[in-house]
Amino acid sequence: MKKNIGFKTKVVVVIFAVMFLGMFMSYYIQQNFMLKMIQDNLKLNMENNLKIISNEIENKKKDLMVKAVIIEKDNAILELFNKNDYNIAQNILLKYIEIYKDVAIEIYDLNGNIITKSLNYSNDMNFNMINNFIKTRKKEKILDSWLVENKNGAYIKSFITIRKNAENIGWVILTYRISDKFLDNIKNRIDMEINIYNNKNRLIGTTMYNKKGVRIKSRKSLNTDREKINFEEKKEELVAVKKNKNLNIKIEVVYRLKEFVKNQQRIRNKIFYLNFLLMLGIVISLNLILGKLIKPVGELIKGLQKIETGNFEYKIEKSSYDELGQAVESFNKMVEKLKENKENEKRIANLDKIASVGRLAASIAHEIKNPLSSISMIANMYYQEFDSIDFTREDFKVISKEINRINDIIERLLDFSRERKIVLKDVDINLLFSELIMLLSKKMMEKGNKLILNSDYKEIYIKADENMLKQAFLNILINSNDSMEKGVVYINIEEKEKNKDKEIKIEIKDNGKGMKPEVLKKAFEPFYTTKTKGSGIGLAVVKKMFDIHRFKCNIDSQSGVGTTITIIIDVEKNKKLTFEGVKYESEILERRD
């Protein structure tokens, strides 16, 4: 009882430790997973948001160029340059300022002198830069737009030449400021902070404020000159930066993680405590039921694993009479049945194979026998006709000898396939082997071999066909004799109990040449032999005879060491052996009991 409690306690402690460790691992995995999931989703959103910002600026750039073209195509522009009338210039300016309220408009002559301009943020511009640009491109036809910046911010400027008779006569320049309002509108759509940097990493536009509520003036950007998006996690924010080569700027979006992470932390803490309480309840419950369930269930699992590896000898001891006890009893019966079925399947497969080979052997033997008889008759006739010629006489002797050898093989093949009548009776095993020893002793002595029987010589009876059994054991002993010189063959016979079942074990062991592994695998296959004069049916016949009697037969051999053939006879099954209503081997082979 104490042992059982100790085992149960160990299991509970192990389960508790595993669950506790699992809970902590789950907590940290969950934390990392959630952060990873957040980051992946945020990165995807940030990629899209960077595209949105770039597209907005690019669209504004294209829009500005379209407006510049509209102004350049206005007939009043040509009239202005033809008449050089200030009033016309002012009318043009007033007309388009009303239409394009957020755009600064400037009109220049070919030498870079300003004719008119709007009074909004065009004063922020560096006119010397514009003047130099115009003077260096007097003959070029230009429609272009780019981003410029100064201390006051970033601007998109669109340039278009005014032409007459395919020659430049002046310029229209439109300017749009990337204002805080412009960036704030985009921020409200994407719900992320926006920063714009020039090519020297100076902040030229932002939606971010400092702690005093003032828009920030500077911020360190990720150092990247590639168009590929770069991500970086800083303290409580995730940052994505991408360079826009068309505008020669870097765009940065910032997502603040602080509040989101705090909320997630509170949720994870609740989950942690709930998991802990649940785990504690499970462990307490398990402690109450493990003592009753663990051992028999473990035994059943072990038994199933044994069966899975092909071991059908494993039995579980029944320790109770409840449902688990019944399960154990059913398991033992199932194992016994599986073992029996496995043996029957192997026996039936082997018998079917041997029966098929037998029929084939008989067919081949009959086909060979007739033409062989004709050859033999003709050879004898020629031998009698030309017996005076020495070389002919010797040749015909060889022919006759080889024909006789072929006939002998054919007779063995026919014997292998021939129907035999089965006669069951009580056979004394010790007496049968004593007779075989007397029969073989002289032949074995010619090769210097010995035959030793180890038995108590008491009467051991089994039900069998005596002639068939004698032939089977005789074949085994002859094979042992053929495989050695000055060797010993041991015949060990014993009765024993195994799992409360009686069985008779017969072991025939020699110290001959033995067999290589590749030969051993095919030892019981018909027509497989390594002998130069063998037919390869001896051991196949032996196996067939043992299978007919439901004996288990196993062969073990090592090259250069010897061969051992073991025959196991189940006493109870042998007592029940009957061939009632059956006369011949073929009928037995067809049975599936």
TrEMBL record:
Classification via SUPFAM superfamilies: ATPase domain of HSP90 chaperone/DNA topoisomerase II/histidine kinase, HAMP domain-like, Homodimeric domain of signal transducing histidine kinase, Sensory domain-like
InterPro entries (UniProt xref): HAMP_dom, HATPase_C_sf, HATPase_dom, His_kinase_dom, HisK_dim/P_dom, HisK_dim/P_sf, Sensor-like_sf, Sig_transdc_His_kin-like_C
Subcellular location per the Swiss-Prot or TrEMBL entry: Cell membrane
Record domain HAMP: where: 291-343
Superkingdom per UniProt: Bacteria
Catalytic activity reported: ATP + protein L-histidine = ADP + protein N-phospho-L-histidine
GO cellular component, one term: plasma membrane
MF terms (GO), sorted A to Z: ATP binding; phosphorelay sensor kinase activity
Annotated Histidine kinase domain residues: 363-573
Annotated keywords: ATP-binding, Cell membrane, Coiled coil, Kinase, Membrane, Nucleotide-binding, Phosphoprotein, Transferase, Transmembrane, Transmembrane helix, Two-component regulatory system
Coiled coil: 321-348
Annotated transmembrane regions: 12-29, 271-290
Gene3D superfamilies the record matches: 1.10.287.130, 6.10.340.10, Histidine kinase-like ATPase, C-terminal domain
Membrane topology: Multi-pass membrane protein
Record EC number: 2.7.13.3
Matching PANTHER family: PEROXIDE STRESS-ACTIVATED HISTIDINE KINASE MAK3, SENSOR HISTIDINE KINASE
Official protein name in the record: histidine kinase
